[in-house]
Structure formats: structure tokens, C-alpha cells
Amino acid sequence: MHKDNSADELFDLKTSFYLGNYQQAVTEAQKLRVSEPVTQAEKDVYMYRAFIAQKKYGVVLDDIKPNASDELKFVRLMAEYLSNESRRDAIIDELDSKLASLNITNPLVLLVIANIYVLHDNLETALKLLHNCDSCQLLECGALAIQIYLKMDRHDLARKELKKLIDMDEDAIITQLAGAWVYMATGDKIQDAYFTFQEQADKNSATSLLLNNQALCQINQEKFDEAQSLLQEALDKDSNNADAMVNSIVLNQHLGKPVEVTNRFISQLKDSSKNHPFVKDLLLKESEFNRIAQHYHPSK
Q1: How many domains does the chain have?
Q2: Which of 89, 276, 283, 296 is deepest in the core (most CB within 10 A)?
Q3: Is the C-alpha dihedral spanning 1, 206, 52, 91 positive or negative?
Q4: Is residue 165 assigned to a domain?
Q5: pLDDT single digits (tens) 181-207
């Protein structure tokens, strides 16, 4: 059985990060003293990614200097990508050029770059990078590949990638979570997925991320009242959790809630999460509707 390098030293940090407990991940990283330079680099990457997950882009941009390691330079580029919408296409062009001229083999660097391409919805390039990544060294590479395959509705390839992760380390938290994602997407073991999220919440902390995933399991099983309770708890913990708001909108349709409730979530999403796929799709449809509406005039 293979395990991530430095898995034991960084176990609590990675656990917090994977479960969406980002402030706890930062706290763990700041108090951790590690011996090996490679472990220090990995620790810093997860810490700054936790800042990014909290949208604290300024901290990352200020902290990571031009002479930083390659791992951190690309983390900084991710923060720049997310904080500067007008520069996004240029950043992707910059990445394309770097990849054409460099032979990158560091799995941590490949993982960070792949995440940037996923943000840009360039899934094929992200997958190519992850295929060069040794998942034996970094299980999250395999987990990200699974997320991409699920986005592409390639459940067969997601299952295949999951089997690789299970063969490498069946008990790892990231493997357990990846299995739950696959079970949710394929719909064949939704209850198993629910119990995976519940187990992690019981062992660690019921984060907004875990609660939202549990709610999604309940929605898929038409247990709408249970889902509503979980989503409310998720939003109590993080009022800007975009996925929880989107799932609340879906749930409100099932429960026949007043349209004003849905509209409040939509307004909040447009305000705080305009790059979320749901919001992008909604804005595109609104723009198309307005364009078509201009061709029609009320009859006199």
C-alpha cells in the first residue's frame, strides 16, 4: 500500500483542508514544525490554498514573494487568477507557455496548475497534467481527476480512477470522500455516500462542506425536510457557501417555497459568487432573454 509522502506529519492539516475546515487548516499549518524541506513546501501549499478557499487572496499575494519556490509561485498564480478577473485569460496563456517549455514532474506543482485549469473550465488540459502526476505520492491528484471525470459525466473513468485510489490507500480520507462523490453522481450508493460524510462529521467537524454534501444525498433520495435542515445548518456555518445556496434554490422548488426566498439566494449568489457555474449559466440565460426581448414590443 502506498501513502502520500509526509502523510503522518500533515495528517491533521490535510484532513481539515479536505473537509472544508479551512481556518482550522491554517491554524494547523501555522503551529506545525516539520523537518524535511519537501514537507515544508507541501505544508505551505495547503495553508495558502486554505486562505484561497476563504477568498483571502490578498494574504497569499502579499506573503508569497517572487523568489518563492515553484510550488508557491503557482499557488500565488491561482490567487491572482481568482482575484483579478480581467487577467484570467492572460494567466492561462502564461501557463500554456510555461507548460510548453518546462518539464514539470513535481506532483504538488502539477496539482496546483491542474486546479487553475479546472477553474478556467479547461478540463482536458487539467487531466493531461494529472496523468503525469504520481498519485502514489499525492492522492489528491487522483481525487481531482475523479472530480473532473464526474464534471464530464464520464462515470466509467471516475470509477476506474477511484479503484486506483482504493488500491493505493483505501482508508485515506480523500479516498473515502472521492468514493462518496462517485456514489452520489452515479446514484447507486447514495446512502453509503451519506454515511461517509456523516462519519467524517462525527470524527472531525460538521463543516459547511460536509453538511451540504449530506443535504445533496437527501435531496437525491427525496428526503426534502432532512435536506432543508442540513442546508440551513450549512448556511449557518458559512452564509456564503455557494453550493449550499444553489441546493437551497433547488430544494425550494421541490417544497413550493415562495419565489421571494429563491430570489434572495439568487441575489446573494450574484453578489458573492458570480463565478459559480450556476450563476454564470443564469447570467448567460438572462442576457439571452434580454437580447431576444428587445426584438419584441408590446402591442398597442
Answers
A1: 3
A2: 276
A3: positive
A4: yes
A5: 999 999 989 999 999 999 999 999 999
